Amino acid sequence: MFRKILVAYDGSTGSKRALEVAVDVAQKYHAELWALSVEEHLPRFAATVGEVVEEKEFENHFFAEVQVEAVAFAGNKGVDVKTEILPGHAAETVVRFAREHSFDLIVLSHIGHSALWGALLGGTSERISHHAHCTVMIVR
User: Fold this and answer.
1) Which residues, 6 or more positions from 43, have their beta carbon under 8 angstroms from its beta carbon?
2) What are the E-state strand segments in 2-127?
3) What is the pLDDT of the chain when averaged over all its residues?
4) Helices (H), 1-140
5) Which tens digit of pLDDT belongs to each residue from 102-130?
6) Rounded CA separation 78/39 (Å)
7) What is the pLDDT of residue 110?
8) DSSP assignment, residue 94?
9) Residues near 135 by Cβ (< 8 Å), separated by ≥ 6?
């Protein structure tokens, strides 16, 4: 049923649960699994270019560690996971990445680290489910 699965992963408790579900589904269907982290905290009105660079380096380091955790978790379950870190608005980035790479399923959490993956995710998950070309699974 599912050949290619994308999990939106930010390292939060909710996204870890989404990863667990995505790994389980990938095992069941012998599907390819990807973990996508979206950097959305870059300053919009930075005082200096250095401020943007510094925040980008922090985000890159944070998400690199988060994705190492995802790879280790999935590997312990016998599932290989490919990873990607992209900048942008999370809902738009997830939908675009899923479409461009022909995913069959997007798995995401209803809570996470950022405002997007936290209190406002109801609106974001709704946007993703309305605009995604494939099945969307929201894990509680």
Assistant:
1) 51, 52, 55
2) 4-8, 32-39, 81-87, 105-109
3) 84
4) 13-29, 49-76, 90-100, 121-131
5) 999 999 987 654 544 444 445 667 788 88
6) 28
7) 79
8) H
9) 2, 104, 105, 106
**pLDDT of the residue at 40:** 77
Reading the block at residue 92, the tokens are 């738009």
Q: What are the structure tokens assigned to 119, written together?
A: 């209190």
Listed as own residue / partner, the contacts of 118-127 with beta carbons closer than 8 Å and 24 or more positions apart are 124/90, 124/91, 127/91, 127/95
Q: Which two tokens stand for residue 95?
A: 């939908």
pLDDT of residue 54: 58
Amino acid letter at 87?
Answer: P
- Among 63-72, 76-85, 108-117, the minimum mean pLDDT is found in 108-117
Phi, psi dihedral angles at 6 (to 5 degrees): -115, 125
Superfamily (CATH) of domain 4-139: HUPs (3.40.50.620)
Q: Residue ranges per domain, the chain?
A: 4-139
